[in-house]
Specification:
The protein is α+β, with helices and mostly antiparallel strands. The chain has a single domain, classed as Ribosomal protein L22/L17 (Ribosomal Protein L22, Chain A, Alpha-Beta Complex). The protein has a three-stranded antiparallel sheet with strand order 1-3-2. Strand 2 and strand 3 form a beta hairpin. The longest helix has 17 residues. It is elongated. The N and C termini lie far apart (about 55 Å).
Length: about 140
């Protein structure tokens, strides 16, 4: 006997991917998440590909996973996906020390973060660009 099945929290036109315990502080990760919020999936992927931030490569992997989940698990159209939300949360904090002069020590905190990316399928004909491409 397993656990009871939980009801799905997202709508039928949404898919998500989660990465836990990423070795970056939440403040830095949120700067990368801000870049992609509200963008079409292809534009968000391009922005992450050419970003100079180290963590952008891992965020791109999470975005790719959300896109793959939308396509394979929920049969959504990849070309109409938009990043609905990219939320960042705190994880554990490793405490270390840095030796200082005269026998003292300074505290060093190494922050970890979680990120959740939710992609949503735009409604058909919502912005008018879909009809122009069909002509």
């Amino acid at each position: 006997m397993g656990k009871q099945a939980q009801p799905r929290r997202l709508s039928d036109a949404e898919a998500q991917a989660i990465a836990r315990n990423m070795r970056v502080s939440p403040r830095k990760l949120n700067l990368v998440a801000e870049m992609i919020r509200g963008l079409p999936a292809a534009q968000a992927r391009a922005a992450l590909t050419f970003s100079k931030r180290r963590i952008a490569k891992q965020v791109r992997k999470v975005l790719d996973s959300a896109i793959a989940n939308a396509e394979n698990n929920h049969s959504l159209d990849v070309d109409r996906l938009v990043v609905r939300e990219a939320t960042v949360g705190r994880s554990v904090v490793m405490k270390r020390f840095h030796a200082r002069g005269r026998g003292r020590a300074a505290r060093v905190e190494k922050w970890f973060s979680h990120i959740t990316i939710v992609v949503r399928e735009r409604p058909q004909g919502g912005d008018g660009r879909a009809e122009q491409g069909a002509r």
